[in-house]
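User: For my dataset I need records formatted as: sequence, then structure tokens, nothing else. Please produce one.
Assistant:
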Amino acid sequence: MSGLEQLYQQVILDHAKNPHGRGLVPAADGLATGESHQVNPTCGDEVTLRVAVGDGIVTGVSWEGQGCSISQASTSVMTDLVTGLPLADVAHLDQVFHDLMASRGTGLDSEDDEDLLGDATAFTGTSKFPARIKCALLGWAALKDSLARSGALAG
């Protein structure tokens, strides 16, 4: 295993052991809030995610879930990445992460996109395993659905 692969594995393990954003936070007054429960039927991983949006910016992401280290770590990393971002940037990040998952382990063509993903580039190796891609995308699916349910994407 290369040094980079070891680093990526450590990032995933760290986020799985100490997940960021875990623990559903009650909806805040005056913010658009959405919640989504997603299940990966192939393995049983699940996540319930709540997002808060104010003035077009993701102000908070909280979640509860259970499953493999990939699904838990990916949701944790995603929470760090999107909190504080405008909705357009969140949509772009979602697309870049989906592109990474479609790369079959080759990574992304753009260094700018890799920089944008930060710790999420640790999931490059996951994209080699089709059965694990759904695990990595579970939290992202919950985020997208939560944002749609919040009404913040309208208009």
